[in-house]
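Journal club prep — side note

Before the paper discussion, L.F. wants everyone to see what a predicted structure for a comparable chain looks like in token form. Sequence:
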Amino acid sequence: MGCSECCIKCLSGIPYASLIATILLYAGVALFCGCGHEALSGTVTILQNYFEVVRSPVDALDVFTMIDILKYVIYGVAAAFFVYGILLMVEGFFTTGAIRDLYGDFKITTCGRCVSAWFIMLTYIFMLAWLGVTAFTSLPVFMYFNIWNTCQNTTLVEGANLCFDLRQFGIVTTNEEKKVCTGSEKFYKMCESNELDLTFHLFVCALAGAGAAVIAMVHYLMVLAANWAYVKDACRMQKYEDIKTKEEQELHDIHSTRSKERLNAYT
């Protein structure tokens, strides 16, 4: 019986809302970082093999340098949000009933309120950042969708002379003519290759991962707002209990003093 009560108490202390948000965050970040990294590698292969874009020999800010920077940013995002998810889980544990019972009804209420407010502000900023990341990730998805859709309908564009010019997307400078036109051998090779189809779907998965991270941030905001309200109510309740205890002690002292006075007067 005692063991079952202990298990029920431990399960009641698990912050399920924070746990669901953390799982969703980790899944979204893993999907975005993993698929985004491989999609960028596939983009490099497509640019080199079919658009004949070469890496600049000097230390210039070309498209390949930007892709390398984005890869390092992905590494940083994966590490940062792994740590942030752990911190949010710890914060969730410290505002559950089991932890409050362990530490005495959350005695450090001022610190708890400050920590909750800080996490709310930080999570809101991260939610806006992930919204920007989602919007940025939709750009390569749109570009690859146009190319992929044209390849899927090659019979409909046989008579038309359509070209995919990298200058339209700002990938190369305006004085460089790097394009692939329908009807050319490079166009058919690119459409038949696995790189285009795989890279397009990897970018779609990365976009889905960024969207999942946004949903996780919104979920965290709701959880943190509820935790902050709980800590605020706990602070008020503790002040009420302190005032009540003080008044009861004063009444007890008054009754004790009167009892002693009556006893002295009787004797």
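L.F.'s comment for the group: The first strand starts at residue 163 and ends at 165. Keep this in mind when we get to the figures.
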